[in-house]
Amino acid sequence: MPAARESLLDAAGRALAQRPWSTVRMVDVAAAAGVSRQTLYNEFGSKDGLARALMRREADGYLAGVDRALAAHAGPRDRLAALAEWTATAARGNALVRAMLTGSWTERLPEPARSGLPSTSTVPAQRRADGPLPAPGDFLRMVRDRSVAVLAAPGTPASDTARLAFACEVALRLGLSCVAAPADEGGTAALVHHALHRDFESQGLSFGSRRARGVRPDPNERP
Q1: What's the pLDDT tens digit per position in 170-182?
Q2: Taking 50 as the threshold, does the pLDDT of residue 210 lie above it?
Q3: Which residues contact 190 (CB under 8 A, 6 or more apart)?
Q4: Average pLDDT of the chain, as a whole number
Q5: Per-residue b or e along 33-59, where b marks 16 or more CB atoms closer than 10 Å to that residue's CB
């Protein structure tokens, strides 16, 4: 992404954190980014285009964090705990991420695009931004499917894959629940560890690792 575009999105994000989007002026965003107002319009086309690009960037940033959380740990349960922790942290710290994941759009935020727009922009990044954002349910399913793709070993039985998908969704929804009501001691990760241990390990599910390879799970092994 060109430096000017990134600077403009940074400036727009800071402005949104300080005041309602309806009061944010394009001229102020351009000045804060240190570029001309014409550059801003060349990149985004309009204030609505700027809003769509900002929402798309925040969505992409959240998804990149999902990938980092899943890659940062070895055990499936640790990975899902990290996923839930990241989801809670991202949603608490970013009003746009919170709205995209929950559907709770406030008057302070820009109006979300309900459908894709025929884009006339010559800027590739803006043409992508002009497309529709996923609805909250679609967003959660997207993250769930990304998680399953990382966690399920080749040859995992379909029944185990389905349980793993459910485990991923449980972790995500627990993470989101901790946005409104923060978890007690141990935080979101401890809550997810407990929930997955109780609901899934008791069924002998090994999340597509030893069991998928035809090896009997070791009851003393932490997945």
Answers
A1: 999 999 999 888 8
A2: no
A3: 81, 183
A4: 85
A5: bebeeebbebbbbebebbbbbbbbbbb
